[in-house]
Amino acid sequence: QKEVEQNSGPLSVPEGAIASLNCTYSDRGSQSFFWYRQYSGKSPELIMFIYSNGDKEDGRFTAQLNKASQYVSLLIRDSQPSDSATYLCAVNGVENNAGNMLTFGGGTRLMVKP
Amino acid sequence: GAVVSQHPSWVICKSGTSVKIECRSLDFQATTMFWYRQFPKQSLMLMATSNEGSKATYEQGVEKDKFLINHASLTLSTLTVTSAHPEDSSFYICSAREGQTQPQHFGDGTRLSIL
Description:
A: mainly beta; 6-stranded mixed beta sheet; globular; B: 115 residues; mainly beta; 7-stranded mixed beta sheet; 4-stranded antiparallel beta sheet; 11 strands; 51% strand
């Protein structure tokens, strides 16, 4: 059974600070890693994806992947109140005949306080 | 790019009604589409995976005869909730992806309320 674990939070950070969101996964065969943001009552929105070990930066967001430790993180620099949402970590690996599936973590709720 | 359109966004209907939800990839060909359900304050739960032209693969505990999925083209998948009951009320979300390692892109979701 593949598992993706996240701290449910809430993670509270002041405006302008760096928010650090963490995720661990159990399946060493996992190949692709995604971060989605979900506002309350809305569907998930893709923020970042990363396939290789190391860091990947896109604007205020940096995804970090360490396959040896089975760990993926998302850093949000200069956090804004509009970043307040639930962040879902998702991991993709060979799963079944229907093709690779995403396994989602339970999400971390981020609160950025003005 | 990578826009997924889902309709309708909100449905309210009587118990026993069948409801069809459409999911379209607007600017890419979706080889695989996924259907999720999410109850308030809970995680996304995958219901089924469908590849174009093939029968859907349902997750354990999801009734195939109740949740009919059709993926007849590379840009359209439909989910029909047959004879819906109040316990089927939920937020249904589709997603689509172009290739096996590509990201899934989500539609805006359909909020289904069965009275």
